[in-house]
Amino acid sequence: MSQIVKPSSDSARIDRTRRGPSAPVIAEVLVPKLSANWALDGRHLLLIAGFALLFMHQNYLPLFHSDIWGHVAYGNWILEHRSLPTEEPFVTLAEGVPVVDTAWLGQVLFALAGRTGGPEAYSHLFAVVVLAGVLALMRAIYLQTRSAGLSAAGAWLAWVLGFSRHAVVRPEAFGVLCFALLWWLVVRTDEHRSRGLPRHRESAFGPAWLPYVAMPLLFAVWANLHGSFVVGFAVLGAYCAGRVCEVLWHCRSLRAVLNDRIFRRWLVLGELALVGTLANPHGFDLLLNTVLFPSNPNLKDVLEWFPLSVVSLEAIPMAFSWILLLVVLRHSRARVAASDVFVLAIFTLAACLRVRMVSWYAPSLVVVLGPHVADILAQLRASAVGEAICQQAEPLYRRSFRLTLIGGLLVWMTFAFSPISRPILGGQPRPEDQLYSHDTPLGVTKWLREHPPQGMVANPQWWGDWIVWDGPPGIEVMMTTNAVHVAPQRVWKDYLAISQSQPGLQRRLNKYRANTIIVCKELQSALERSVRTLPGWKIVYEDDVGLVAVRDGSVSTSPTESETSGE
Fold first, then answer.
1. H or E stretch including 547?
2. pLDDT single digits (tens) 394-444
3. Furthest-apart CA pair in the chain: how many Å?
4. 321, 365 in Cβ contact below 8 A?
5. If residue 517 lies in a helix (H) or strand (E), which one and from where to where?
6. Are the CB atoms for 279 and 105 separated by under 8 Å?
7. Helices and strands per DSSP (H, E), number in the chain
8. Per the count of CB atoms within 10 A, which of 18, 226, 264, 506 is most buried?
9. What distance in Å separates the CA atoms of residue 464 and residue 471, rounded to the nearest whole number?
10. Which long-range contacts (CB under 8 A, 24 or more apart) does 296-300 make?
């Protein structure tokens, strides 16, 4: 914004006298003038500081040794072959098993980031996506409460509840972002959730047709980024089921349900979302594969697919969220919609059955609780204690352009002191001990590159992706994280038996002609003890993280071949 200032006639005459009769006269001068909306208050400054800390935390997270490397390897394979893999490309024991790559676009984005900025760029992309997801969730809560502070608190609570899922860089971050965008779109569409907002929906929320365009586009992108798009159907299904229950309760008529405008809206949006998911290279097979994926028997042995345990990293925040839910609903006067009940029931049950579902439970919980917490805060403000607190907090509401400058400085300092700034501002990249997690087998893969193994490598599954990434080209690993669900069940069971040092270790190593064993000392103590005393094997490398053992002979042979050769 600018303000036009016209000089007075006296000043113009004086200026003409100084410059001479032929000098031009400046008739108008533009003076910059910012709108008062740019002036921030103390609350805004706290929000900026909170999100700045969140971004820096995510950007400084070390790269985990697990599946990120498998996803990047898939992304590079897709870029090099210009097609999607139809079978597992890195685990020979899974050759011939069909693969439906449900995260191909997310993998390609990570691979492109790595080609641009090296491994550290994975952290940059991850931090940006996580921050965008938190801001989108904050917007969804804000549309219900019109409170920036409450919205930020809700978004932070969702992040804390799902903290165990935010510590690993993986394409799931794209799915969490899409889930937050879905809630933004749902809240914008739901008249119940916008009950406290102006009724001029065209001006408050944009055109009425926007959800019918945005919904299929969102699911089309989501279906290619990550297989978590199916949880979006759970939200839309909960809203359809909730509306059915409400209409039946009041009208006791199925005809009334079919004629209900709100029910038809959610039904159409669900159908459009389903159509959007078909815009992928696999077509309808993607949906079938994603729905049936949790039934894969191999996943029963993977930690993140375990049911919720009382003693676990996820149990404490889950218990806290249930207590918070009971307290909030007890004191809130806001109406509880049937859709809220369905949403909470679906995602609570999902989180109890599979701990990885906490990623979707946490955002759903805070969106449902938003209007109720806002109602409780309104009750508190109306009380004498609340009025006293508001009076004490009045300085936080004073707007000032000085605070705007401080906020801008905070944003700049966040960027300047975060690793994401190094490609622009310069500086040394993070050393390996900071860039990678402490249990990444850097020494193991370095030894493997210097001494490329011959034949199969019996490795920890959680190190398989890193070994393929950082080990010698063409290394033949027994298992990777991305191959768990495509490996034949017999192969998976044999891998578990080797990894846990069950009886028959030597026989199984011979069966797969494994010439090299890699041991994770922290998680495979039983196998470590067995390898140290295993006949015909010797330890050739060892550090604090892992060890490598090889056969005395360069080529392993099965028992039948040994008998044939007379050995």
1. strand 546-551
2. 877 888 889 999 999 999 999 999 999 998 898 888 888 889 998 899 999
3. 117
4. yes
5. strand 514-520
6. no
7. 26, 7
8. 226
9. 10
10. 296/485, 297/489, 298/484, 298/485, 298/487, 298/489, 298/492, 299/484, 299/485
